[in-house]
Write a structure and sequence with these properties.
alpha/beta; Maf protein; 5 helices; seven-stranded mixed β-sheet; single chain
Length: 219
């Protein structure tokens, strides 16, 4: 099985992606091999590709990465690519502390938004990059409605406040396998795997730096 670097230090993402890609590639973490640079892209796709290419530069191995976040209808798609840093300097401490600060700020901002306008979507761009320059990026999306108070203890980030369309519980209340089956990240990486595996097996090398345009979100 081919060794592929997973370009993230987020332990929640590591566990989730190991479940989603189990049996397809051997995922290894960056494990202090380098310090990931800041996310400076203008879109989820930009950031995902930049992370994957950065991992290739530092490790010499094929790499996969994602960038994901919450797009709130009433906030014109924000926090979006700023989801992990939404609370700014107020988001300090452990990852759980930062998640809590981001979540509390979001709920405060939506306090006066009526229930019928609390639509939102988790969005994920998943990308691979190879040492020969090939890369691709795909998009996945999970739509739902935002609660006024967190519910559930599973997952991470904004999971405790999004109830997926058609369900009555948040993604933080779902069993891991049930969440993987419908999640934005699961949809994106299940699209990416059929693109990555043939690329890993193929010795053919297109023009260096060629990148497939991001596919439309899988809903």
């Amino acid at each position: 099985m081919t060794e592929v670097v997973l370009a993230t230090t987020n332990r929640g993402k590591v566990a989730e992606l190991q479940r989603i890609l189990a049996g397809t590639v051997e995922l290894v973490g960056i494990d202090g091999a380098y310090e990931p640079g800041p996310e400076t892209g203008a879109s989820f796709a930009d950031n995902a590709l930049a992370k994957a290419r950065e991992a290739v530069r530092h490790t010499g191995l094929p790499a996969v990465a994602d960038d994901s976040g919450l797009a709130v209808d009433a906030l014109s798609g924000m926090p979006g690519i700023l989801s992990a840093r939404w609370a700014g300097r107020h988001a300090v401490g452990s990852p759980a502390d930062r998640d809590r600060a981001n979540l509390e700020l979001l709920l405060d901002q939506l306090a006066d938004v009526p229930d019928e306008r609390r639509g939102a979507a988790f969005v994920c761009a998943a990308a691979y990059a190879l040492p020969d320059g090939r890369s691709a990026v795909v998009l996945g999306e999970l739509r739902g409605t935002l609660l006024r108070q967190p519910q559930g203890t599973g997952g991470f980030g904004y999971d405790p406040v999004l109830v997926p369309a058609g369900l009555t519980v948040t993604t933080a209340e779902l069993a891991p396998a049930d969440k993987d089956a419908i999640s934005h990240r699961g949809k994106a990486f299940r699209q990416l795997a059929p693109l990555l595996l043939p690329a890993l097996a193929s010795p053919a090398v297109p023009a260096t730096g060629s990148t497939a345009p991001p596919r439309r979100p899988s809903r």
